[in-house]
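Async update (no meeting this week)

Hi team, since we skipped the sync, here's where things stand on the single-chain job. The sequence we agreed to prioritize is pasted below, unchanged from the tracker. I ran it this morning and attached the output directly underneath so nobody has to dig for it. Comments welcome in thread, and please keep replies under the output.
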Amino acid sequence: MSRTDGQPRPGSVDTGEYRGRLRAAVAASAAPHGYPLAPWTATAMTSSDRGAPGTAEVLALLAGATLAFLGLGAVAYGGSHI
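Output:
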């Protein structure tokens, strides 16, 4: 049912506005969503060929990924914020 005063119903969303916000949400989440897919896929392929990794290998992966992230942060911020 439409309103006679020409105003949208409370709670209604303009389709163009909704699609614009949806585009922004998809764009903002593309990298955070896509990044885990690459290592997870590589891990799945490797473990299917070589078996599950041991504890030391898992911890080495965690340490390497953390150090790489910290290194990129140091480069991005000039080392002053880490």
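Quick observations from my side:
The chain has two domains: 13-51, 52-82.
DSSP finds two helices and no strands in the chain.
Reply here if anything looks off.
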